[in-house]
Amino acid sequence: MLREYITNNKPDLEFVNNFFNINYNSEEKDKFYNFFETHKLFSKTKNKANISRILNIPETTIDHWLKFRSIPFLVKLYNYNSELNKSKNKWLSLNSSRGGLFTGPWVSVPLKINDIDDIKKVINQIKPLDNYNILSDEYKTNDKLFLFFYLLGMTVGDTSKTPIKRKNRTMRRLQLRLTKRYLSCERVGEFTTLCLNSIGLRMNRGKDCPKSKKTEYDFYAWHSQCSLLIEWIFTVVLGMKSNELTTYDKIKCDWLLNIDKKFKVAFLQGLSDSDGYVDITTRRAGIITGPNTDFVMRLFKSMNIKSTKTYFHNGTLGCVNIAINDAYSLPLFNENVRLYRYELMEKVVKAKRLPRPFPEWLSKRINYLISKNYSSTKIIHKILNDYNIIISQGGLKKRVDKMKLLTLGIESTAL
Fold it and tell me: Which CATH entry fits the domain spanning 131-347: 3.40.640.10, 3.30.70.2470, 3.10.28.10, 1.20.120.80?
């Protein structure tokens, strides 16, 4: 296709604006124009040495350009542009070679998300990878749009969004490290792989990472390919600047507040499977939300779910939590992944709740655990795991206080 264009009038560089996140410097600009000028002059003189002197370019370069052995980056882009249909949006290539050659497939993407239809138009252009069908059967879902919003939540959460800066563009990859303390964490990585495969991107399981000085367990590890599509998700879909971090900077995507509940839940599940928690003592489930605390509260409010703002680490780390029954009804954690947090949430919701006073055997068991200086959280967990009974932290505190008074020889009517 390129050969058909080289004899045309001198092209301009306006076509670069048709592509997402592409830039060039003065050296590349000169190569672009000199490439076309080389072919124009050679069609008249057939003298490579003379062209070399006129353009002040090595004759070997002239020879390579004429034989199409070496083509400047912008000329390649010009050729891609000639083969693509006109679009009011921007074109990006999902894949590229190590040498910087775009290998497609090409996808038309907007520079601003107004509503979910903008996302649908992008997703519908992309063919999933072959591995997608295997994983979608295993996890009982083939809803590409649902998977996209789960991936979006995961991107805001635990994943590392490493930017890869090339000469002409910035691409990005996702990396995921999850503790090996829980076997179910492996399923989170596999499900995230499914999400990326659904939009034509590879995600590979890497070598497990060793534990650090602050942890007791090694880590599962996954990393995706580098792609302009991930950069588009980060900067356009989430509204982040390329140099920002989701750990410290707010996402800007209020359009999420107006999508169908199903996809809000998908987003929250990705975020919760990444950064969620279950508080068994208060019977609430939540998400560590950091700079996005207010946004997540607004998202819950849009679904008529009451949420509460809390803080960890001496008021420095924002969190949002909801009643455990509300969390289970959504569900807040993905029911097909069934992460350990989902299992705990389900266990709390379905556990027995006994009226007080407790049966004598249960009272004796709780008293024994108290006498062994078990924390209230550990006692609640143990009673739940051993007997499928949930007890309240408030009632447990009264029992602890009563036993302290009895050891001092003071009568108490509490419990």
Answer: 3.10.28.10
State the pLDDT at residue 399: 81
Block mean pLDDT (10 aa), the chain, length 415: 54 91 92 92 89 92 91 92 90 88 94 97 96 89 95 90 81 93 94 96 93 87 95 96 90 96 98 95 94 97 97 84 97 97 97 91 91 90 95 84 66 46
The angle subtended at Cα 260 by Cα 257 and Cα 264, nearest 5°, is 60
* pLDDT score at 214: 79
Residue 103 dihedral angles phi and psi, to the nearest 5°: -120, 5
pLDDT at 5: 54
392: tokens are: 């309240």
Q: What is the pTM of this model?
A: 0.91
What's the rounded Cα separation, in Å, for the pair 99 and 73? Answer: 10
Task: Write out the two tokens for 83.
Answer: 């083969």
Q: What is the 3-state secondary structure of the chain?
A: CHHHCCCCCCCCCHHHHHECCCCCCHHHHHHHHHHHHHHHHHHHHCCHHHHHHHHCCCHHHHHHHHCCCCCCHHHHHHHHHHHCCCCCCEEEEEEECCCCCEEEEEEEECCCCCCHHHHHHHHCCCCCCCHHHHHHHHCCCCCHHHHHHHHHHHHHCCCEEEEEECCCCEEEEEEEEEECCCCCHHHHHHHHHHHHHHCCCCEEECCCECCCCCCCCCEEEEEECCEHHHHHHHHHHCCCCCCCCCCCCCCCCHHHHHCCHHHHHHHHHHHHHHHEEEECCCCEEEEECHHHHHHHHHHHHCCCCCCEEEEECCCCEEEEEEEHHHHHHCCCCCCCCCCHHHHHHHHHHHCECCCCCCCHHHHHHHHHHHHCCCCHHHHHHHHHHHHCECCCHHHHHHHHHHHHHHHCCCCCCCC
Residue spans per domain, the chain: 2-83, 131-347, 360-407
**Phi, psi (rounded to 5 degrees) for 262:** -55, -40
pLDDT of amino acid 387: 96
* Residue 379, pLDDT score: 93
